[in-house]
Write a structure and sequence with these properties.
The protein is an alpha+beta fold. 62% of the residues lie in helices and 14% in strands.
Length: 169
């Protein structure tokens, strides 16, 4: 891989434009929603708002990762989680470009990277990730999540589908 063109293919491939658009849109939608919920709707002062029989809106600042694992109360801990998100995003970007993936792979990785970076922005701005959606039914409460989390899960589902359908596409 000493050829400069080979190195360029790690950074930019035919899948890169689609993935970049999805990353930017995911981050923008996520951050706009969080801004609106905190600044305009002022969810913090309202507490729990019943939106439907199975959905409440509530503000929770998650200082850990999924399901509040690895809680990091200090800003240095938040910086470590931001660094992890950035390094993972770079790795996923390289994977996308190296593998010359399909449109589904570009879309899926764009969602994952955009969601991870959207949550990383929260960590820098708020000292944790802003979560708002609380689904519940029959006494079971799902964890509280945000749009970035939805994007990450949708991206993972896309990658799983891609891997299950194999190379016959």
């Amino acid at each position: 891989m000493t050829d400069p063109a080979s190195w360029r293919n790690i950074v930019w491939s035919r899948s890169a434009p689609l993935a970049l658009i999805v990353i930017v849109l995911t981050m923008a939608i996520d951050q706009l929603h969080k801004w609106w919920m905190l600044s305009v709707f002022d969810i913090e002062s309202k507490g729990r708002v019943v939106a439907a029989p199975f959905l409440d809106l509530v503000y929770v600042k998650n200082i850990g990762v999924s399901y509040s694992l690895f809680n990091q109360e200090s800003m240095s801990g938040q910086y470590l989680l931001v660094a992890f998100a950035v390094i993972a995003s770079i790795g996923l970007w390289i994977w996308l470009n190296w593998s010359r993936g399909s449109r589904l792979m570009a879309l899926s990785l764009g969602l994952i990277i955009g969601g991870a970076l959207g949550n990383a922005i929260d960590r820098l701005r708020l000292g944790g990730v802003a979560d708002f959606f609380s689904f519940h039914a029959y006494g079971f409460h799902w964890y509280v999540f945000n749009i970035a989390d939805v994007a990450i899960v949708a991206g993972v589902i896309g990658l799983l589908y891609e891997s299950l359908r194999g190379e016959s596409h």
